[in-house]
Structures are given as C-alpha cells and as structure tokens.
Design a protein that fits this description.
The structure holds three protein chains of three kinds.
Chain A lengths: L2 H16 L1 H22 L3 H24 L1 H9 L1 H5 L6 H30 L4 H28 L6 H9 L4 H15 L5 H30 L1
Chain B lengths: L1 H9 L3 H33 L13 H28 L2 H33 L7 H22 L3 H32 L15 H33 L4 H11 L1
Chain C lengths: L5 E10 L2 E11 L3 E6 L6 H8 L7 E6 L2 E2 L11 E4 L11 H11 L6 H10 L15 H14 L4 E5 L7 H16 L3 E5 L9 E6 L2
Parallel strand pairs in C: 3-8, 3-9, 6-7, 7-8
Antiparallel strand pairs in C: 1-2, 1-4, 4-5
Helix pairs in contact in C: 2-3, 2-4, 3-4
The chains are: A mainly alpha, B mainly alpha, C alpha/beta.
Amino acid sequence: MFRPLLALLRRDLTLALRRPQDALTVVGFFVVVVALFPLGIGPDPEFLRSLAPGVLWVAALLAVMLSLERLFSDDYRDGTLEQMLLVPEPLGLLVLTKIFAHWLITGLPLVLISPLLAVQLNLRPEEILILMAALLLGTPILSLIGAIGAALTLGLRGGGVLIALLILPLYAPPLILGAGAVDAVMHGASAQAHLSLLGAMMVFALFATPWATAAAVRIMLD
Amino acid sequence: MSERGIQWFRFTAPANFYDLAGRLIPWFAALTIALFGVGLYMGLVVAPSDYQQGDSYRIIYIHVPTAWMGMFLYVLMAIYAAIGLIWRIKIAEIMAKSIAPTGALFTFLALWTGALWGRPTWGVFWVWDARLTSMLLLLFLYLGYMALHAAIDDRQRASNASAVLAMVGVVNVPIIYFSVHWWNTLHQGASITVTEAPTMAMIMFVTLMIMVLATWVYSIAVVLARARVELLERERTARWVQERLEGERR
Amino acid sequence: MADREFRAVALAAERGDRRLFDDIDFTLSPGQLLQVSGRNGCGKTSLLRILSGLSRPVAGQVYWGDEPIQSVDGGTGSCLGYLGHQNALKEDLTAEENILIAGGLGGGRPDREDVLAMLASLGLAGYEDLPVRYLSQGQKRRVALARLLLQPRPLLILDEPYAALDVQVIEVLRSAIEAHLARKGMIVITTHQAVDIDGDCHNLRLG
C-alpha cells in the first residue's frame, strides 16, 4: 500500500536534489522580497517591527505560490503524470505525496530561513518562535490549497498568472491566522487560538484538498 | 410523482429549455423594469430621510440587495456547476457559466455603493470593514472562475475545471467570511452597520424588499438570456438549432 | 494471463465540435491483438486514451470483464499498461532509475537484474547509468518500452510503439508482442508501419 507512495516521494526528492537551484530560487525570492520592504517603507525599527508579521507572511505566501507552478507541470509535460493515473493507487494519495515532497523542498526551507529575516525586522525571540510555529502549520495549507490551482492550470497559456488569481483569495484565512498569531504575541496576548485554528485548518485541508486536486488533474488530462 | 419527474426532466433537454427561456425572458424583463421603477421611486422619493445619516442612507436600497445577490449567486453557481460536473447535465454547466458575470456585477456594485456610502459616513471611500473585505474576496473568486473558464479552449474541460474551482470556492466562502470577521474584530476596525438600524420604518423595509425582488427578476432574465446564447453556440450543429434559426429568419 | 474479455460498447468521441467516431464496438479475448488503423486525425489516439480509461467517451463504455474500466477492482492500472506518444521518462534520472521507480509506483518490486537484462535485449547495454536526457529519441522510446514490458499487465495499449525504432529493435518488440499473445495477453496497437505479427490479429478501421 505505502510502497508506491514511498517510491514517488523518493523520486521527487531525488529529482529536487539533482536540480537544487529550483528550491533555492524560492528561498532566494522570499529573502529578497522581505529585504525590499524596508527600502519601500523606511528603516524605522519600531515601524518595521509592527509590520513584520504581515510582511513575512505575505512574502512566504507569494514564494509558495510561485513555486507551485512547477508542482505538476514537469510531470505533465513529459507524460509521467499521465502514467500516474494508471497506477493502481488512489490518485488522491499520489497527489498528497507529491504535495508533501513539494513542501519538504520549498515550504520547510522557508520556515527554517524565517528567523533570520525576523531578526532583521526586529522581532523578539519568543515572537520568532511563534512565527516559525505559525509558518510550520501554515505553509502546508498554502501548498495544499495551491495544488488545486496548479492542477487546474495544467497546460494553459499564462498558467502562472492564472494560478495567482485562482488561489490568492483562498489564501486569506491562513494569512489572517498566521500573521495574527505573531501579532497577538507582539501585543502581549496568547497566540494559542490562532495556532489551534491554523492547525484545524491544516487537518481539514489535508483531508479535503487532495481529492479536489486529483479531480482537477483528471479533468485537465481528459 | 414520476410524471412530474419526467416533465421536469423535459426542461433539461436543450431545445425545450431554449423555447421555455425564450418565452419567460420578456416577462422577467418587464417585471425588472417595473420593480426597479417602483423600488427606486419609493427609495429615493417616498421613503423618509434617516434622522442620523440624512439622505446618504438611501444607498442601502442598492447596496443591500446587490450584496445579497452577489453572495447568493455564487452559491447557486457552485450548485449548478456541481450538478453539471457530477451528472454531466449540459444545461447546468451553461447555467453556472451564465450566472458568473451577473454575480460578479452585483458583487462589484455592492463594493462600489459601499465605498460611495463610506465617503459621507466615514470620510473615506474605503474602510477595511469585515463585510466589504469579504465582498472583495468574493469578487476575486468570481474573477478567478471566469478567467479559468475563458483560459481553457475545450468547452467540456473548461466547464469541468471551473466547476471544481467553484466548489472549492463555495467551501471556502464561509471560512473566508469568518476569518475576515475575526481579523476585523481583533483589529478593532470600523464596521458599517447600516442594515442594523434599530427602528427600520415599514416603508423602508417594503422598499428594500421590492428592490431585492427587482434584483432577483433581473438576474433571472439576464442569466436566462445569456444561457440561451451559450446554448445556441454549443449546439450549433444540432438539428433543433437549425430548425429554430430557419424559423426566425422567415 | 488474462482471464476476462476486454469490450468496447458503442464508443463515441468528439474533438471540439467534430465527431471523431461513432458506435465503436469490439470484444477482445485473451490472446488476441487489435490493430487500430486510419488516416491521421481520425481519432486513433483518442480511442486508445478512452480504452485505457484516461479520457471519458462522449457515449458508450469500456469494460474489463463486467466492470467499467474506470472502476476496475484495484485500479485501472492493475489490468492495463499504456504507452502513449510521450515516453513518460524523467530526463534527470537514468534509464535504470526510471524503470525501477515506475515499477515501484506500479506496486511491484522490480528486480535490478531483470531491468538490466531487458535494457540489454533492447540494445541499451552500457546506457543504463546515463541520465535519460543524453539519450536519442529512439533510445528513449526503447527505455519506455522496457518499462512497459517489465510490468506484467494482461492488456497492453500501444500508441505507435514502432515510431523512431530501428529494424533490430522492431524485431525484438515483435517477438515480445508475440510472446505476450502466446501467454494469453491482449494487445491494442496503432501503427503506420506494417509489421507482421504471428497470432490472432484483428483490425479496426476508423474514419
């Protein structure tokens, strides 16, 4: 039952290791976008600090979104996605495995690099901890929802821009909760409510979105 | 029961739908004009001014019906899209596609009138109020649906793919709505409470309902008209289309 | 190998507004081969995709035994192997890795020795460790064929398998097809080249 999924996971990770620049580009984008914000709004440390949760979250969200175009498109172009429809394994599970691999390659590095950027924006250690927790719960949601958009734009001209229009509105709830968690700690409140809602949302996305993505893949390959 | 079932099913046959819609549209169009005429007259002339907001409150006669319709039509669109996707009923696919522009229009009007109302009331055109923000996100969902539909060349695939998007969107609408509300209360933002006027005069209520009804019949007329054109285009090789076009040419 | 019949009932397909074909019916029994022929653009590939359950027909149904092809017990992939126009190879992986991973995905536990032997029999000895990116079109096609032949499926659906292959490899493929039929397997194939196959062959002409 799980052997095919492991084979797929190993394949995607191997491919990513052979082309590490793809994953590094995403992290680079995240870092550069955050670095541009102070240039746009001024270097005042207190002001930057108050904007930090939103800036970090929006930048992470855009980085995940940009990386999503590649989630299925390579497999679509060389025909391996088509062969995946013929694997005796539920497509929803295969899709979930691919999303997990994608998160390991792009989402996790964002979480790991975020403390560095948070320090630049003057967040305190306990706030950084909450930021990482929120990103750890939130980036999988972004990948899971985004996968639907990636599947729906397979083989379309201008797919990248279209993905943004399709999924950015759906990113509002995780953004509100994730940035809100850090904001709450900054104002001396507890982030527990935010984080538990974020966790609940992740569990829901984990169960619901792979089937929608699988349906979308089938439709686009029909 | 079974006879009724068959009769209902008859209208899902393209030719019957086309004929029935053709007969209904003039009636709904006439009703639209009548109801908008009466409703606007009552709203702008007959109904009294608000003791606090003066005449600027009158925009709720447009704002509230369009906002309701914008939200309702998205749900309706998703239901039609789901029916079309699951049972492969062509009319349902066409209805979903035809509803989208009207829903987007109403959502846009609700935002526009909300901004116009905000200027005299709050002094700014836009406040990041929970309701306005969720309406804005709803407009983006509509735009995404229409963009995806337009981006896919194959008609069947376009219908199926955008149906998935509509269903994902409709699941998300309540989540978006509640999270935006939550965000708003946490940030102590301003809230437009125009619909929660403590004592709404009877005349105001009646006028509002007339305007709501007007947006309903307008939606029905426009969506049916759009669906009819879409149906002709999709079925242009079918015999019933040829027959009807011959008939109209004569 | 196969214990059931493969049936198509009243299949129809469209591309855009154009009807490609109507009322395609056939029954394939174990040990039989069906060659689909017709001019370009008559819907051969569409038919093969419908037969493999990748596309839905406008009308009609495909059956594996008594089950519709989309809801075969254990998934469509458990009864058929499909080779389309694309080779479905990852360019960054070697030929051997490609085949081993595809086998693992299919639920099998492919044996490395078998893979090397199959690649050698298709004239790819010495190319196993090269990323597929560096292989020629014909060599890539051979890797895809090796992958397909190493997955034991009762029904093989082959879309232009001889394309870009040289004579010796066509000969190897021909004997593989004959062996598959002799084992009571079934094959649906489209091809432009006339290759004589010894076995119970039938023809279906489109358009």
